[in-house]
Write a structure and sequence with these properties.
Blueprint lengths: L6 E6 L3 E5 L3 E2 L5 E4 H13 L9 E6 L3 E6 L2 E7 L3 E6 L12 H12 L22 H16 L7 E9 L5 E2 L1 H7 L7 E9 L3 H16 L3 H13 L9 H6 L11 H12 L11 E8 H17 L4 E4 L5 E4 L2 E4 L4 E4 L4 E6 L15 H13 L4 E7 L13 E3 L7 E7 L6 H9 L3
Parallel strand pairs: 1-8, 2-4, 17-18, 18-20
Antiparallel strand pairs: 2-6, 3-4, 5-6, 7-8, 7-12, 9-11, 10-11, 13-16, 14-15, 16-17, 19-20
Helix pairs in contact: 3-8, 5-6, 5-8
Protein name: McrC family protein
Organism: Neobacillus driksii
Length: 435
């Protein structure tokens, strides 16, 4: 099978993609693409100007470069037919003078992805792999292969499947209507139904199809070698002709529930199962995630890990409506923390604040939102948590406590999560203290 030649570039959120006569990643993280590849990406942006994808690639003009594309808000992998693979990483800052590296950002992104509930990234064996040093798409392929290794340790799985055929022998039970219709002049035949123990199952077919798909796109030797070994293991299994139909035939019970994750991975690759659906004939593969949702998931996961033994913690709580009669405008705070006497509300925002801006650049809409939480939950302390970034002057952040009332009883904390140094425990200690 012919391999597709690929240009693989890691870029960060908010990076610029510039139309040029060469393909090159610039020292500041921006990317230059030759005309034919730039125009392919431009076409993808134009085809997705509405819906979930509308705020991912934005087209604009530049006084020097003329046409540019800006990457916004989404992270993950995008691959095109002309061979471009964009690995889009979150823009995460270090407090040191040196910006965090591609490897460091990739590692943090993978940690974030593992906290998502509906995508199968929770593979413990991945800790032994140097995932921060290989392209993101190869990490995803490695995760799939690790999961497949787990479920095939004892060999391929077979199951009883129903077979219908017009045979010269009688077995199982007669399919009476089909027998009359088919064998009215063939008295020697029997149109029968019976169960056969077979490896040719819907599950094995979609796995085989996924392996063949990935064989074409992997670029590193270890993944390529492992895929070939698995294809050999599945050599007697035909690949799925229609994987959507095969997926619909798979049901789970106590005997096969461990197959759920591998099927989720198959859907990721065969259906581009992501948070968004992309349009465009130029796309080969896209697995993209909105950073706002990813940050929410990561914050909740780490808060729960640290505080679960001491507090009742809920995510995306839906207890209250902004309008009670009739019920409408649901309030959904990211994290609600409770003990016997107190409620704390925390909302995460993937926005880069700046101490040089008025009010740090905090959105007034965000303030209205947390004020509504405070009132509806009868709480006296809410927090907005933002990612730490280089535009924050520590000296100007000594007082990060604001008040909604003159008596200083209704408190708002502005918290900055340093994702590299992981200062969440300190932030929570400060937020939860009764004062």
């Amino acid at each position: 099978m012919e391999k597709i030649t690929s240009l693989n570039f890691p870029v960060f959120e908010h990076s610029l993609i510039i139309k040029s006569n060469k393909n090159e990643r610039l020292p500041n993280g921006d990317l230059m693409l030759e005309e034919r590849i730039f125009e392919e990406l431009e076409g993808i942006a134009i085809n997705n100007t509405a819906g979930d994808f509308s705020d991912f690639l934005t087209l604009s003009s530049h006084k020097i470069y003329k046409k540019i594309i800006r990457i916004k808000n989404f992270v993950g992998v995008l691959q095109t037919k002309k061979g471009l693979t964009l690995e889009i990483l979150p823009k995460i800052f270090s407090q040191s003078k040196t910006d965090s590296s591609v490897e460091e950002n990739r590692k943090i992104l993978l940690n974030m992805l593992r906290t998502l509930r509906k995508i199968p990234f929770k593979i413990s064996n991945m800790t032994k792999l140097k995932t921060e040093h290989i392209p993101l798409i190869e990490v995803f392929i490695s995760m799939f292969l690790e999961e497949l290794t787990i479920i095939t340790k004892k060999g391929l799985r077979a199951e009883y499947i129903e077979v219908e055929e017009n045979a010269n022998f009688f077995k199982g039970k007669l399919s009476f209507q089909n027998h009359i219709k088919t064998n009215i002049v063939h008295k020697e035949k029997f149109y029968i139904k019976y169960d056969e123990y077979s490896f040719n199952t819907a599950s094995n077919r979609v796995i085989k199809k996924t392996l063949i798909y990935l064989e074409k796109y992997t670029r590193i030797f270890e993944n390529s070698h492992r895929i070939k070994e698995f294809i050999n293991l599945f050599s007697e299994i035909p690949e799925s002709v229609n994987h959507k139909i095969d997926f619909s035939q798979i049901t789970y019970n106590r005997n096969n529930k461990e197959l759920f994750n591998i099927h989720q991975w198959c859907k990721v690759f065969l259906d581009n199962k992501s948070f968004i659906n992309l349009k465009g004939d130029s796309l080969v593969f896209a697995l993209l995630f909105p950073m706002e949702k990813l940050f929410e998931s990561y914050v909740y996961h780490n808060i729960k890990k640290q505080l679960d033994n001491q507090y009742l913690i809920t995510s995306q709580d839906r207890t209250y409506q902004l309008i009670e009669h009739p019920s409408s405008f649901g309030l959904i705070p990211d994290v609600v923390i409770k003990n016997k006497s107190t409620i704390w509300i925390l909302d995460s925002k993937w926005k880069l604040l700046n101490t040089d801006k008025k009010n740090l650049g905090i959105s007034q809409t965000d303030l209205y939102q947390v004020f509504a939480y405070l009132k509806k939950y009868s709480s006296n302390k809410v927090a907005l948590i933002y990612p730490w970034n280089r535009n924050l002057n520590i000296e100007n952040l000594k007082n990060n406590t604001l008040y909604f009332d003159k008596d200083k009883k209704e408190q708002l904390k502005i918290l900055f999560y340093n994702l590299i140094e992981d200062n969440l425990e300190t932030l929570l200690d400060d937020f939860l203290i009764d004062k």
